[in-house]
Specification:
The protein has helices at residues 2-20, 25-32, 35-66, 72-92, 94-108, 113-116, 122-129, 147-173, 179-211, 214-254, 257-262, 265-280, 283-291, 294-324, 329-371, 374-380, 384-391, 409-434, 440-474. It has 479 residues and is an all-alpha fold.
Length: 479
């Protein structure tokens, strides 16, 4: 146990460090003027941190089974402190990370991201990492940057730090009879944190990036990185309240799982909606090309992605509640097949609605540029006049001029990634029904590992290629 516990603490610190690395992307984007490419590299670092996180969480779940619930609190508090040390290292090394990002962006301008990460480029990457880019930030002087979005970043980081830890502690201490449901609720907490970042933090950072002025972007990045440190420490204070809240939610949701066995349409329709959003989210790249606001279009894409993710994290504990109330594993197979049918229908609907969503993205980018705040844009969408504008975005289904063109290899890779994403959560919950009860938490958490591997593939192969195409079209180097 001691070896595994030490491994978990060490990996938690590394994960927190890698999670802080993407803050350097916006300064590098302003320096190199390659916003989409820098964003893709940032996404890859984030996904690597997430994948490492998904490796240690199943190990931690196996420890939870062996340690008495009353002895687990110091263990989780130590892990949170390790996360704080990781974010502290990312803040102190921010100038080095900006230098590394700039070098990677320039490499990706002439070759694909996987090729830029081959061993022959490692000496150059190390040399650039050892250089500290001159940010020249004056600490705590915000240069006109709003204080509110920096505070929101601290709160969202706190939620992100403790989400999975609260769920594991709740599954052992508060709601052991609904352990699978409690574990799957961790994704919902993390999705709320990610939505908060997309709504309240990323819009301001994206607008600063699109203006192209280095000093405000450098200042925002320095203070956001410091906010990650403070947010991780704040996780110590919110850990126990979060555990009690997740435990109560698991009991409430688990007690209704038997009802969903009788009526699966809500779960099928929810998965249809999730897949529809996932399919149409790529229309943001069309909006980036047509409006020229690449960072703002990327922000709108992130918002749609986070809404999709939040809906997915509602679906996951709902499926887990059905599994917790299924007496035999075979009873759950039919549920999974119906939910996967909803995903297929959602993907087909997204194909038909792609032209309409491309127009919706364009309108969203223009409104965000005009109003300067994503919450203000969302409030504007509640007015009847905005509904008429939304209705005017309808377009007839078409293939956007792609008929007869063979898919590129990265599109075939995207097909495989989406297949793994679709089945990851249902397959892991079903696996939890097949193994011994004490292994159910570990099996359920492996869903994130499957999805994490798929997302890493997406960030390594698919997104960099699509981002490079977008940057080249915006720069006029490609028709």
């Amino acid at each position: 146990m001691d070896t595994r516990y030490g491994l978990v603490v060490a990996v938690a610190g590394v994960v927190a460090f890698l999670g802080g690395v993407p803050v350097a992307a916006r300064p590098a984007a302003v320096v190199t003027q390659r916003v989409q490419t820098a964003a893709s590299i940032s996404y890859l670092f984030f996904m690597i941190s997430r994948l490492a996180n998904l490796f240690y969480l199943p190990v931690l779940a196996s420890l939870v089974v062996q340690v008495r619930p009353t002895d687990q609190l110091p263990m989780f508090q130590t892990i949170i402190l390790a996360c704080s040390l990781g974010t502290l290292a990312a803040w102190l090394l921010l100038p080095n990370l900006v230098s590394l990002y700039c070098h990677l962006v320039e490499l990706c301008a002439v070759r694909a991201l996987p090729a830029a990460l081959l061993p022959q480029h490692w000496p150059g990457l190390l040399r650039n990492f050892c250089r500290r880019y001159p940010l020249r930030v004056r600490p705590f002087r915000l240069e006109g940057i709003p204080k509110a979005f920096l505070a929101y970043n601290v709160l969202a980081t706190a939620l992100w730090t403790v989400g999975a830890l609260c769920a594991l502690y709740a599954s052992a201490l508060v709601a052991p009879e609904y352990a699978t449901t409690a574990v799957m609720l961790s994704g919902l907490v993390n999705a709320v944190a990610a939505i908060s970042l997309s709504l309240l933090v990323d819009p301001q950072a994206s607008l600063l990036t699109d203006r192209g002025e280095q000093r405000p972007v450098f200042t925002a990045a320095w203070h956001l990185s410091l906010g990650n440190v403070l947010g991780s420490l704040l996780g110590l204070a919110v850990f126990l309240p979060g555990t009690r809240l997740i435990g109560a939610a698991a009991k409430l949701l688990g007690s209704h799982g038997a009802q969903w066995n009788d009526s699966l349409w809500p779960l099928v329709l929810l998965n249809l909606f999730i897949t529809l959003l996932a399919t149409t989210a790529y229309a943001s790249r069309i909006a980036a090309v047509e409006t020229g606001a690449r960072a703002t279009a990327l922000l709108v894409f992130n918002l749609f992605s986070m809404v999709m993710r939040l809906a997915g994290q509602v679906l996951a504990p709902s499926l887990a509640a059905v599994a917790d109330n299924s007496s035999r594993p075979g009873d759950f197979v039919g549920v999974v097949r119906w939910v996967l049918l909803g995903a297929s229908l959602g993907a087909f609907s997204g194909l038909l609605l792609m032209p309409s969503f491309a127009q919706i993205y364009r309108q969203a980018v223009r409104q965000l540029q005009r109003r300067g705040s994503l919450p203000l844009v969302l409030m504007h969408c509640l007015r009847p006049a905005a509904w008429r504008c939304l209705a005017s975005c309808r377009r007839r289904p078409n293939l956007l001029g792609l008929l007869g063109k063979a898919p590129s290899p990265f599109l075939w890779a995207n097909l495989v990634v989406i297949a793994f994403h679709t089945v990851g959560v249902p397959a892991s919950i079903y696996a939890g029904k097949l193994v011994r009860p004490e292994l159910a938490r570990t099996a359920t958490l492996l869903s994130s590992l499957v999805n994490g591997l798929a997302t890493i593939t997406l960030g390594l192969i698919v997104d960099p290629a699509a981002s490079r195409l977008t940057d080249e079209v915006c720069a006029g180097r490609r028709p």
